[in-house]
Predict the 3D structure of the following.
Amino acid sequence: MGRSRDRAVQGVLQTSPAGEFSGAAEDKRSCSEPAAVETLRCFSHSKRSRASRLASKQDSDDNLFMQLMDDESPIEPFIDGSEKLLRIFGYWPSFHDAEVIDLHLWRGDVDPDRARYVFPVLTLKFHLWELTSEVDSKGYLILGHHTLTTLRFHHVDRIEMNGFNHQNQIVGLSITRRGRADGPSPFFAVQLEPGFGISASFECLSLEVVDATPCTGDGHPVSDDEVRS
């Protein structure tokens, strides 16, 4: 009966996955019942330890994911060229009442044979300004810092857009940095909140302020001489 039990335990050791416990499968001595119980206990402890490490790593990944999902920190440090707008306004503008003047979509340039991977790009030109607390002679609030600015969004995906018209006034431009488990992360979720005209939402992996220049009250560029005066 003892030899039969030893052979059964030996069969368990030989069919166990390689590397689960050191030297167990190579043990040539006769395997008594206490030794078999101790070996199986070590095997069980090894599996629990590995599962604990995997769970710890998953918790760490989940924590990072949730931090990005709940990220409410200022967005401008993550936008290339944001200083071009910060120099004008002193802060990152909300784009409240801004107007979309121009919109351009490029499909990119993906050519694996030449190792080129440029994914879709969306470029938007805005006329924006700052609403001051000053009032003109007619009782209207004075608008300052009239600016034309171009924002470019790279590796754009999940674009939804409608309502483009002759004005395209928006309530605001929302840019949120987020994380995800099923794609490149972090990424940016962008929304043009509609006022009159365009509404849009999309995701991108990076964005930049291409330029920011003074303009007239109706959104036309001004010359350097006009700016200096």
User: Anything to note?
Assistant: Strands lie at 99-106, 109-111, 116-118, 121-135, 141-154, 157-162, 169-178, 187-196, 199-204, 206-214.
